[in-house]
Amino acid sequence: MLLYDIAISLYDLAAYVLFPFSRKPRKMVKGHWVVYDILRQQRESDADYVWFHAASLGEFEQGRPLIEEIRRRHPDKRILLTFFSPSGYEVRKHYDGADIVCYLPFDKPRNVRKFLDLARPSMAFFIKYEFWKNYLDELRRRGIPAYSVSSVFRKDQVFFKWYGTLYRKVLQDFTRLYVQNELSKRYLAKIGVDRVTIVGDTRFDRVLDIMRQAKELPLLESFKGNAPVIVAGSSWQPDEDLLIEYFNTHPGFKLIIAPHVIDELHLVEIINKLRRPYVRYTKANARKAADADCLLVDCYGLLSSIYRYGEIAYVGGGFGAGIHNILEAAVYGMPVIFGPKYQKFVEARELIEARGAFPVTDYASLSGLLDRLRSDGPFLQSSGETARRYVHGHAGATLRVLEDIGL
User: Fold this and answer.
1) Which residues have C-beta within 8 Å of that of residue 219, sequence separation ≥ 6?
2) What is the pLDDT of residue 8?
3) Could you give phi then psi for residue 121, rounded to 5 degrees?
4) Alpha-carbon distance 133 to 169, whole Å?
5) For residues 373 and 357, what is the distance between their CA atoms, to the nearest angstrom?
6) What is the pLDDT at residue 88?
7) What family does this chain come from, according to its entry (predicted)?
8) Active site residue 347
9) Which residue, 350, 388, 328, 247, is CA-closest to 61?
């Protein structure tokens, strides 16, 4: 795997080259500088550490139910949590569910040996798409169990290509792979990987936890009143253009917009398109919220609780790289709408087939769908109930993983 090691070294070099010019590489490099000091200073010498690695924030949320269930069942164990991306580490570096949080050093043999010599985990969990060859090779050599959790495999991945022989060997390093679906297991069986168990996706457990812990937001209650509400979560400009055009010309409902990117320029762009009364969340009080038809959420951390105040959800990203988390909305029992780029997401495809979610491609398709959802009560209710049942029916992956491992 010489080419792999060269690629990792080039990535490492690129981070240093970009250090003076870009905030993300700068944060990553600075984080890597202190990893070993963090481990030396914070690791309890006689404690049993379970290591979780997540690429970024989304993978962390996927692994979080496992972390918290292990802590609940085994308070004597310690949790080491590592991230690859600054977008995960910077948000969760103070997460109180872990005893140590740090970056994962680049997957070079010297880094791997030094990291594992200091961390000394008793087992390791890699969430979804994390396949670091040198770490996995070294864990196997040291006899440390390594598990892949909530992983999904597709035929277009390198493991299944004619040139993927060397990459396939990485999968053999795992003690067991806990995959989301039968198709993943079949693909792995074709290349001789048989230590595989279908457990589902731990994200379902996570969104149920989030729903149970959702905050009551008095400002949202004032805004909603008795009006039906559409919640646009993690929206981007193409999503907002469609929704705002419909909102401006269809009174009788209220709109909450929680953009994926919150900066003043983008917020002003949204405001300039609105033709009905609006208020920004951070500048609202109960009276202003009640008088507004659109609530613009100009802060982070509230979206999962905001969904509970809606009758219909629109989840953004489907006109760009791909949709954001639709399960956070579906768990509340409402139909979910999104743009056309959803094919990589199993839950989106399955919810569409079940008639609990609906893709749109342009204003005409959005307008027609919203008209029907708003005028046909039984259709709105049945599609929302389908979405709710789908999430509840797919929960339980966390317990299946831990019971299989014996934790």
Assistant:
1) 281, 284, 285, 286, 289
2) 67
3) -75, 155
4) 9
5) 12
6) 85
7) Belongs to the glycosyltransferase group 1 family.
8) no
9) 328
CB of 337 closer than 8 Å to CB of 366: yes
146-151 and 357-359 strand pairing: unpaired
- Alpha-carbon distance of 242 to 221, in angstroms, equals 26
Angle between the 57-73 and 203-212 helix axes, to the nearest 10 degrees? 80
312-315 vs 196-198, strand pairing mode: unpaired
Tokens of 64: 């979080």
Residues, the chain, total?
Answer: 407
User: What is the distance between the alpha carbons of residues 332 and 329, in angstroms, rounded to a whole number?
Assistant: 6
With residue 196 as reference, give the H or E element that holds it: strand 196-198
- Going from the C-alpha of 13 to that of each of 16, 220, 236, the distances in angstroms are 5, 48, 33
Contacts of 13 (CB under 8 A, 6+ apart): none
Structural contact between residues 3 and 78, judged by C-beta atoms closer than 8 angstroms: no
- Tell me the mean pLDDT per 10 residues along the chain, length 407: 64 60 70 90 96 92 95 96 89 93 92 96 94 94 97 90 86 96 95 95 94 92 96 96 97 95 93 97 96 95 93 97 94 97 93 98 97 97 98 96 95
**CA atoms of 126 and 60, how far apart (whole Å):** 10
Do the Cβ atoms of 323 and 338 come closer than 8 Å?
Answer: yes
User: Measured between alpha carbons, how far is 40 from 81 in angstroms, rounded to an integer?
Assistant: 15
Provide the pairing of β-strand 196-198 with 176-179.
parallel
**Type of residue found at 360:** V
Catalytic residue among 44, 59, 90, 353: 59
The answer to whether 177 and 151 have CB atoms below 8 angstroms apart is: yes
Distance of CA 73 to the CA centre of its chain: 24
CA distance 196 to 26: 38
Residue 357 phi, psi dihedral angles, 5° rounding = -140, 155
Question: Would you say 407 and 74 are in contact if contact means Cβ atoms under 8 Å apart?
Answer: yes
Measured between alpha carbons, how far is 171 from 136 in angstroms, rounded to an integer? Answer: 9
